[in-house]
Amino acid sequence: RKKCLLCNNLLMIVAASIMGCSKIAQSFEMILIGRFMCGISAGKVISPTGLCVPLHHQYVGEISPRKLRGFANSTSSFFWSLGKAVGQISGQRELLGSKSLWPMLMASCGLPALVQLVTLPFFPESPPFLLMHKGDQEGCKKAIRQLWGEGRHQAEIDDIMKEKATMKNIKILSVLELMKEQAFRWQLYMIVILTATVQLCGINAV
Known about the structure:
- The protein contains 12 helices and no strands.
- It is an all-alpha fold.
């Protein structure tokens, strides 16, 4: 989880650098490339499909104590809204939306990624990931103590072990297998239609 987030931050910093240098290079193609990379990293404004949203939910949800897990996962929506508001304000002509400063506005998306790139290495890997995928029980206990402090955390470890035992009996489907599976056909149709038509519901105008 943590390595994916770090790589995603690097992708966003590269995208911000490309867009920030587009005016100096006099290349609108660099803006297109940078925005494409931003889309892979962060996703769309209204319908997030990039890497950071599922990674954020997975990592933050897994490192949070059970009683704070719902609150921690709701931070994603809060920061999306905050980011859009800051972007709207920063894009005003009196701030960064001027003819001379717009490259800085486009490159500003790299600042949060840089902050996370610097701070994230000080956080441990996700305890469920360490236990379920790596089989590292000691590493899991160490990560839990680092995140939640000293105390009795055996109940949380037992929950992860139960989840691991349950996962052994579940077949993980590839994307191609999922698309071929008849039982999930209508669910897939619904998801595709909802995702494709969300742009037509007027939420962008709002």
